[in-house]
Amino acid sequence: MKILLIGATGMIGSRVAAEARDRGHEVTGTTRGGADGTAKLTATDTAAVAALAAGHDAVVVAIAPPRDGSETSGPLLAAGHAVLDGLREAGVRRLVVVGGAGSLEVAPGVRLVDDPHFPELYKAEALAQADLLELIRKEADDLEWTYVSPAGVIEPGERTGSFRIGGDQFMTDAEGNSQISAEDYAIALVDELENRNAVGRRISVAY
User: Fold this and answer.
1) pLDDT at residue 68 greater than cutoff 90
2) CA distance 202 to 198
3) By the 8 A CB rule, do 44 and 75 touch?
4) Cα angle: 59, vertex 154, 127; to 5 degrees
5) Residue 2's closest CA among 81, 45, 60?
6) What is the pLDDT of residue 4?
7) Domains, the chain, with CATH or none
8) Which residues pair with 202 in a beta bridge?
């Protein structure tokens, strides 16, 4: 499979790239600056997205706003619109998005980000990711999309291959923790790319 990976050098994107390449897939990585052997791409530029996506089987988006609360949903939604339109121009239908956990439900109709104890530092990022999910749900019916939410805590760790796949509900373990290593998250994402079990919906990954 030929995969265009937008945001290839971040914590999650770099591990998705490694996991996909280890399985024999061809990955074209992009970054804003074109560093570390990646292609330079401004993700809000529809024409640039289309040009790079052409000839690929799938596009993975692994970008997020800064975690300092300095940005609202605007930049991420602009990238979302550009990616959707760029895929259409390029004739690529498969899209997998590295999403956030904040939009997962802790109770019917209640999102994690709406909990009064949700960390203020991460709220702007969580709301932006939630808005991106809603954009995709509303406007990407013509594409074969999957949005992959991590657990509440995702960080570098062990590649175990043992985790749970859920849906819109926030998952915790027996001790009430919600965690996943970036390495295991990457396994789940590439599994979905290969197996296409969740086209047109959001899945979540946690221990």
Assistant:
1) no
2) 7
3) yes
4) 70
5) 60
6) 98
7) 2-206 (3.40.50.720)
8) 147
Query: Taking a C-beta distance cutoff of 8 angstroms, is the pair 27, 21 a contact?
Result: yes
Helix (H, G, I), strand (E, B) or coil at 127: helix
Top mean-pLDDT range of 32-41, 116-125, 132-141: 132-141
Q: Which of 133, 29, 161, 149 is nearest to 98 (CA)?
A: 149
Rounded Cα distance between 140 and 81, Å, is: 10
Which residues are bridge partners to 146 per DSSP?
Answer: 96, 201
Q: How far apart are CA 204 and CA 169, in angstroms?
A: 8
Rounded CA-CA distance 172/101 in Å is 12
Query: What's the pTM?
Result: 0.95
Nearest residue to 126 (alpha-carbon basis) of 102, 150, 98: 102
CB atoms within 10 A of CB 177: 12
Q: What is the structure's pLDDT at 180?
A: 98
131 to 74, 141, 158, 191: CA distances (angstroms): 9, 16, 31, 25
Give the tens place of pLDDT for each residue, 76-95: 999 999 999 999 999 999 99
